[in-house]
Every structure is written in structure tokens, then in C-alpha cells.
Amino acid sequence: QPLVSSSKWLQLHGLKRNKLSLSQILSQIGFQHRKDYVTALGKLVASRYADGLFPQYKRAQDGSVYNLTAKKELILHFVDCLMGAIELYKQRMEWLTSESRQIFGVIQERCIVIVLHFGTVAPAEFDLCRDALSMVLVEQVTQIAKFNLIRAARDLMKWQQKSTPVSEHTVKSAVTWLWKLDHMTAASHTNSTEALLEAMSDEAVSS
Length: 207
Known about the structure:
Blueprint: H1 6-13, H2 22-29, E1 30-32, E2 35-38, E3 43-46, E4 56-58, E5 65-68, H3 72-96, H4 101-104, E6 111-116, H5 123-139, E7 146-151, E8 157-158, E9 164-165, H6 168-179, H7 189-200
Helix pairs in contact: 5-6
Protein name: VWA3B protein
């Protein structure tokens, strides 16, 4: 799936976009039961002609009442459409909470620098961190334009001097570099700040 935010995804696949929100469906399968103020009578007057003629639905949100006039076939059509939307939402949620996205979210920038700060992790946890980073490189970074890796350490370590165009070769190179890193002692807050400033100094990086 493309690396798009949920707001953009909803613009394409949301209920409103596909005319499947409750108010949109109600307007297609019935009409609102009106109550209007009649100045001449000085009171609210409700249309009574529909009472008992149609099934009615009362919206809990605002108390409005709709007279339902649609045939069964049309209502079943909307049932099918809503079931399809539910399945699509489930797929999106499963995608958002799987693999590298459950750790890093969905990368939307075209150029990124990943700053590595491993803290005081044990060797086994160090390998888990590198597994996660390898995963995000292969799954998401392959879909953007440029990237770089910087490790916060006493002596700053950079995969490349500046952000590099994404290709199969550069991603493989970054993964190899990542797995050649030594397990080192924790970097200080100063080291972390220096690494972040170095990342932001890359003119191609927007955030």
C-alpha cells in the first residue's frame, strides 16, 4: 500500500467520500419528518400525513426523525456497501499495526535521516533494534526519494555524508552498514543533540 496518512486515505476511502455516512444514506432512503414554526398560528406544526405510512428512524445525535421510503433492495445495497467499507477499514488497521509501521508509523516525507540512539541496550536488544531498522528500510524507505543514517556516539557515525537517492543498491548498503555497527556504550545527551543537529543540517531534509 502507498505510504499515505490516514487523513488522506479517508479522503479516498472514507464513508463521506463514498456517500455512506448515516446522514447521506438516510437522505437516499427516505425524507426527514419536519416540524416547522408557522407564524400565522404562532406554534410548531408537524406534518402528519406520513404518520403510520412509513417505518421511521430517529437519530440519536439530534433527535431528527426520518420516514423510510426505500425498497428492500436499496437498503440491502447499502448493507453490502457498508460491509465492504468495514472490511476495507479492517485491512487498513491491520496494515497500520503490522511490521515496521507499528514502531515507526507511516513515513510520509520524501527525504529522511534516521538518527540511531541505542542507549544502554543489551546485545540481544541491540540486534532487535537493528532488525526493526532493517525492516523499515526495506518496507518503507524503498518507497521514498532520499535517506541517510546517523548514529549518535562520542564520534558521530554517518552512513553517508548527506542524504542519498533511494535505490535497491543504497538500501542494501545501508542495511549492511547497520549490521556492521559495534555494540557501544550509551551515547550522552550531547551526542544525541549533535546527531539531530547534523541530521537537520542536510538541506534536502524537510523535517
